[in-house]
Design brief:
The protein is an alpha/beta fold. It contains ten helices and 13 strands. β6 and β7 form a beta hairpin.
């Protein structure tokens, strides 16, 4: 099976967990962070996966390192920094399970990744390199991770990018857009939400937006997630829509998009990007949709990653 490296942030999600006797909100501590969620999803499905990132030398950082190891993720590229704290995210859930975030990060250790912190062999020997935009909000991590992505692209690796826009973390939306466009110029696989597609293109139409991205950045695999309306995919061979599994009882959507990405990359590792056409692309997207939908029936991100047998059962159930 292909080797994958996910470079970016890992943090603590504090997820709502009811109220105290005094009526005050209670929060459950869960491991999360988009890139770490992708890494743990790939590992769950048997892909040899390493995570590269920086955590604080604190209780939360120790907990997250243990979590990665328990999930079967290679931690050779994980460092703990005594000069910065592990980033915390407080998740706020709407009635339909959708979420918003408040970050505690001043600065977060995830933004402090230096070039010397990245083991050279992890990038040079991987087949899949995945990164997201959250640790790109600040330097030195922005320049470090983009340089790794450039190295991976130059070496012919499959490079996956998720813009994952979190507006409060950016100094300006102009910087966010310019950085995400740089990320798009480096990837073979782009996962983008409907809102992010509009932010990046100014086109309020998923078909037109993905066509614009394809024509301008020549990304061979574009996946635009549409929430309960499913996924629109655009490849050099075909374009199409795949329905999601909207019949599940949604509790918490935290990490669902990341689990979609990790599940899809697992299918890329199995099929090969050039073979994702016809029935294969639809099977790959359907697998990722099923995995993401199952994750929304449980709380947290990493704790909600399903087993492959569960995903296959869900796909079989719908037929």
């Amino acid at each position: 099976m292909s080797k994958a490296v996910c470079t970016g942030e890992m943090l603590i999600d504090f997820t709502p967990y009811g109220a105290s006797e005094a009526g005050m909100p209670l929060y459950e501590m869960n491991p999360g962070g988009a890139c770490a969620n992708v890494a743990c999803t790939l590992a769950r499905f048997g892909v040899d996966t390493a995570f590269v990132g920086k955590l604080g030398r604190d209780y939360f950082g120790e907990y997250l390192v243990r979590t990665l190891r328990e999930q079967g993720v290679n931690t050779a590229g994980v460092l703990q920094d005594g000069s910065a704290d592990t980033t915390l995210a407080f998740v706020h859930l709407a009635a339909d399970g959708d979420r918003s975030f408040h970050f505690v990060r001043s600065p977060g250790a995830d933004t402090c990744l230096l070039p010397a912190d990245v083991p050279a062999d992890l990038v040079s020997e991987c087949d899949i390199f995945h990164f997201g935009s959250i640790p790109l909000t600040d330097n030195p991590s922005r320049d470090t991770i983009l340089a790794c992505a450039e190295e991976a692209k130059a070496a012919g690796k499959l490079v996956s990018f998720d813009p994952n826009l979190r507006e409060p973390l950016w100094e300006s939306l102009e910087l966010a857009k310019a950085t995400m466009i740089k990320g798009m110029s480096l990837c073979n696989v782009l996962k983008v939400s409907e809102e992010e597609l509009y932010f990046l293109t100014g086109i309020d139409d998923v078909v037109g937006g993905t066509e614009y991205v394809y024509n301008n950045y020549h990304i061979p695999m574009i996946l635009a997630t549409l929430g309960k309306r499913g996924v629109y995919f655009h490849t050099p061979y075909e374009k199409g829509h795949a329905a999601t599994y909207a019949e599940v009882e949604t509790i918490d959507t935290t990490g669902a998009g990341d689990i979609f990405v990790g599940s899809f990359l697992y299918q890329v590792a199995a099929f090969g990007l050039d073979n994702l056409k016809g029935d294969n692309i639809r099977l790959a997207v359907d697998f990722a949709n099923a995995a993401a939908s199952l994750s929304t029936t449980r709380k947290g991100a990493i704790p909600s990653i399903p087993q492959e047998t569960e995903v296959r059962a869900r796909m079989s159930y719908r037929g």
